[in-house]
Amino acid sequence: MKALILAAGYGTRLRPFTENTPKPLFTVAGISLLDTLIRNLQRAGCKAIMINTHHLHKKIDAHLTGKQYEIPVTTRYEPEILGTGGAIKNVADFWDDHPFMVINSDIFTDIEFKKVYNFHLNHPHPATLVLHDDPEFNTVAVDGNGFIQAFDEQPLPNTRSAAPGDESQKSGFEDAGKLTFTGIQVLNPEILSLIPDNVYYSIIDVYRTLAGKNRKISAFFSKNYFWKDLGTPARYRQVAFENMAPEAFKQAFGDPPKKKITRTKLKGDGSDRDWYRLHHGNRSLIMADHGIKRADKTSEAEAFVAIGRHLFARGLPVPEIYAYDTFSGLVFMEDLGDVHLQTVILKTQNPDKIITHYQSVIRLLGRLSLSGNNGFDPEWTCQTTRYDTDLILEKECRYFVDAFLREYLGMDICFEDLGDEFRYLADKSLEFSVDGFMHRDMQSRNIILKNDRCYFIDFQGGRLGPIQYDLASLIIDPYVELPGAVQNTLLDFGVEILAPAIRVHPHHFLSCYKHCAITRNLQILGAFGYLTRIKKKTYFEKYIPNAIKTLEENLSAFKDTEFPVLKSIVKDVGSRAAF
Questions:
Q1: The model's pTM
Q2: 369, 343, 326: which is closest to 459 by C-alpha?
Q3: Contact indicator for 378, 386 with CB cutoff of 8 Å
Q4: How far is residue 311's CA from residue 544's CA, in Å, rounded to a whole number?
Q5: Which of 57, 85, 191, 577 has the fewest CB neighbours in a 10 Å radius?
Q6: Which domains does the chain have, with CATH numbers?
Q7: pLDDT digits (tens, 9 = 90+) for 100-146
Q8: DSSP secondary-structure letter at 80?
């Protein structure tokens, strides 16, 4: 047996995701649809596979390069798409005198190809089409004897009941009515003579021609198998979930789930990700849905998985990741519960207890920075590899001006009005920087408490950078608004614990901290402005006054000659009635 996998299509229904990735390279559980089909064909005893290509054909070729399959796998590029029939005829030199399989590349199934092929060998008809019951696509009419009568309401010519002795395939079709063509078919070589050369041609036209000659098109009913067309984003994501969730529970708890896994959507955060809690009995996992990958660059899901697995392997307190598929964006991980540090701090009245909680986090912060830096690969990052001047100027300073001052407040202020001060701020923030692993969003809602242990989450923005930035993020966090006295105590503790660990003089440590506190504050306000105004997540708006107040207080610690324009603007903003 030989096989042709049809992989030339544009994947129009899957746009914009197919603009950079051809649909045969979409993955489920980290394995491409193309690789899954090839492996299934290998197991079925296939001797060689041809893949027709057109859209993003070089990416398919690059994917196959270096793969070590058990059988020959080659591609045939079509300068112009030829259709199913045209593709079959275009590789006429590939076929031999045995029946062959033709399979669409955008399906996911456990149908046994060997069983289908043997079924075809055991009847005299020129073609076998595998059908499945999918109400969304049930357009193929089949009679009770298992012969196809019509496609999309258009009957085949000369369809008739089976002749005596031609009823061996009857079982399962008596009440079938209409079914879905799965994109899996077995054909006899004789059909090649019915397809013209070098033109677009549909295989359905071949079947009409055969039916006109009183030849029957046989159906194989995949009644007890899984099959899904992945032609739309929703269907693709559903298959990814259904395939991966049971495996995640098996990895987490040692045995596969026996009942249905349910999912409950959780309250979102500032990102575009969706979060779910998955339940199976009294067991639960968390699933993060980052969305399908759009571009060739490292995605947020890829960064989340690579960084998370690295940190966990270093023995750092992050959730364990049990299963993932970075193209679909699904990541299944340990359920740490719902108790965030923010919740605990807001319920704690005793300042000493608040300080104790934060001191534990600061100690962990030192481990995160130093141990997380050991073996960290900058290629894992999805934004920038390190905290540098460009990032400070563009993602913090300009973000503050554009998203907060201009878009949110409507102020007529340009980045260049503050350009000199921002460049000075960036230089001073990095003057005494010592790179470690930097979380970049170290705040109370990204720290979970479980069994009196702190865990860090949302580390997908991690990169190399100064530990002082994460310390500043923690201390000036607007979600909790720590009193000034508590902030000072925690800063003193941070200097005492962290400065020796990174071998920096306390004075230099403080200088880096003070400037990082300003850059972080600018980033916070830019984010709050963007989330409130653009993303319509208005619940972030209530934290803006806290962030403005903190920025004004931290700027006041600098000399009058430092940041005069920024101080004036922030003072003006802080005096507005809205705050």
A1: 0.88
A2: 369
A3: yes
A4: 32
A5: 577
A6: 2-229 (3.90.550.10), 233-254+261-334 (3.30.200.20), 341-574 (3.90.1200.10)
A7: 999 999 999 999 999 999 999 999 999 999 998 888 888 888 888 88
A8: S
